[in-house]
Structures are given as C-alpha cells and as structure tokens.
Amino acid sequence: MEKLYEQCMLLDEQRSVLLKGISEGKREFADLVKYIPDTATKTYPPRLLYDLINTKIEDIIKANPHMNLNVVRRKAGFHPYIVIHDEVRNVFILVSKLPKSKHIYNTSRYRGDYAASNFDRLFAMGATEEEIACDVSYQQSIPLGQEYLPFGIIVSYDSESDIVFEGALRPDQGDWIYKKDITHAIIKDTSNIIPLNAYNHSKITLPLKTPKDNDDIIIKLKDK
Length: 224
What we know:
Elements: H1 2-6, H2 12-33, H3 44-62, E1 69-76, E2 79-86, E3 91-97, H4 109-115, H5 118-124, H6 129-132, E4 151-157, E5 164-169, E6 176-181
Parallel strand pairs: 3-4
Antiparallel strand pairs: 1-2, 2-3, 4-5, 5-6
C-alpha cells in the first residue's frame, strides 16, 4: 500500500518549488506588515499571507515550465484559491494554511472534490480494501482506469513556523491517507535533475517526405 500512494506523492522538485513559494510569500508578508498600521480588527494577516503565497507559487511554477505543472485559479463560493495540476500523473495539489491546534481540516466541499477519487485511484493501481483500510462509505467512481482518476494532495503550511506537511485526504475527509513532514525538502542543487517531458501530440511533427506527383514508386520484389 505504501508503495502505491508513493507513486502519487509529490516529486522532489515539485516539493522544493512549493516550499520556495511558501517561503518567499512569508518573507514578503513580513516585509509588508511593517508598514501596515495597527487596526482594531486584524482580519487582513491570514488573507494577505494566503494571497502572497499563492502568487509566489504561481510565479515560480510559470517560471519552470519543464515540470509540466499547470496553475488554475478557481473559486469555492466567495473563497478564491489556486489548484496545481500535475498533467503527466493527473495529480491535483492544493496549498492551504492548516488551522491552529488541528491535525486536519474541517470538512469542505471543494477539498472533498479533490479527495473524492483518492481511494478509487489506489484501487485502480492495484490496492486492496485491506491495504487501504477502507472502512468508510463513499461514492465510488466509474472504473475507467487510473489515468481518469485524479489524486488530490494538500500542502499545509503553518503561518507562525516553517513547518510544512504534504498529505492526501480520505474521501470522507475524516483522516489522512498519508501525511508527511516536508519542511526540509528544498533542493539546493537542481543541476542533476532530469526534466520529465510530456508531449502534446498536436505539436509533434512527423519527418515524413512528401512525394511529388511525378515521383515513381518503386517496389522491390523479394527474390524466390
């Protein structure tokens, strides 16, 4: 079971890029709040930090197109957020602040959307109910193959410390399939990383010679 969900976990360079975005967002937040006057109701800090982190992550992903990550801006009600899509492995990644004194998020519809097919993806990869400890009821997806079953990951940061976790929720959002501390997963030397290429078939040109109308077609017959 562990080896199966490890195939869906973030790659080393993906972790490093997300951690850099979170770190840069926090650094810019610390610089800005020095110039913001004290207010009676301090509602801006978590929102401003969230906006800055999302912006830094989006910028750094766009600056590294070789990772085949796509950033999509979406809304859940009045809550704007970004979702990162690993287009090669069909993995969706949310970045969010983990609530204080909690090891898991409150149930929400939009987080549930990204966790809905996590079990089904693992089943399609060969996991059994015993390995997943599937003791919760959930709506199973149509078995179309693992390439059509996205896996959802949440990268959780703490606003007051450098701690960052990576994890995947069960479909009922009541517990984690896995949760991993990735605080120190930044890659300092990326010179040895081999980019993973994904090709768009419409962009591939076939080096075939176009025959002219007056070209003779020669067929060589095999000797008896």
